[in-house]
Amino acid sequence: MPNSKPKKKKTTVAADVDIVPKGTSDNWAYTGTVKDHFFNPRNLVIDVSKMKGYDGLGMVGSPACGDMMKIWVKVDKKTDKIKEMKWQTFGCGSAIAATSMLSVMVTEKGGMKIDKALSVKPQDITKRLGDLPTRKIHCSVLGDKALRSAVNNYFIKSGQKDRVVKEQVRIIDREAKVTDHDIEEAVLEGAHTLEAVQKKTKVGVGNPEVIPEVEQLIRFYTEKYFG
């Protein structure tokens, strides 16, 4: 007896289709460069036991909240250039692609001078990737911070404590214990209005006199990272 069940239609999705969630004009598509660095990450560490002879080790984040990264650097002491940068992360695909690209940027053409490497901004990484979806811009910050941590570790180990880059943190709302860094992180994660930042941090909820400064910081960080 012939099979009377209707045949299921195959659904295919083009590899480069733009994915736009309902109710927003944000483009969620990944560029070919992002996909290349995600599927073929450069300088990724698979076996940590083999990581020997490096000059600096940096780590940021926590596995408990899902994002953590380690970066190893090897420095040419004569030229003050980063010769190698290896890394490992528990981050998402965008974090993997961004850190892979960062590792290429600071080691290509014979290596980047440390001072120049420390001035690499998340938007520089994003530009080399051909852009990232708006909600993933914050992923390029993880590698940036881990690199600074690794370089600081190198400075300390090599007796160059005067070169250590200190992270400046300022308390904005003492009642909610919110710093300018917390507001920066909220903006990077897509909160570009006071209401959105308050939802993430509770800044100014019980202390409304800080709101003008919070709004100023939101404008500053939005312009800094998103133009």
Shape descriptor reads globular
**What Rg is obtained from the alpha carbons, in whole angstroms?**
21 Å
Element order: H for helix, E for strand:
HEEEHEHHHEEHHH
Name given to the CATH architecture of the largest domain? Alpha-Beta Complex
Fraction in helix? 25-40%
**What CATH first level of the largest domain would be assigned?**
Alpha Beta
> Could you give the distance between the termini?
66 Å
Oligomeric assembly: single chain
Low-confidence residue ranges? 8-26
Kindly state the mean pLDDT as a whole number?
Answer: 84
- Number of domain modules: 2
Strand content: 5-15%
Q: What's the CATH topology label of the largest domain?
A: Sufe protein. Chain: A
| Largest sheet report | 4 strands, antiparallel
Pairing-aware structural class of the strands and helices? Answer: alpha+beta
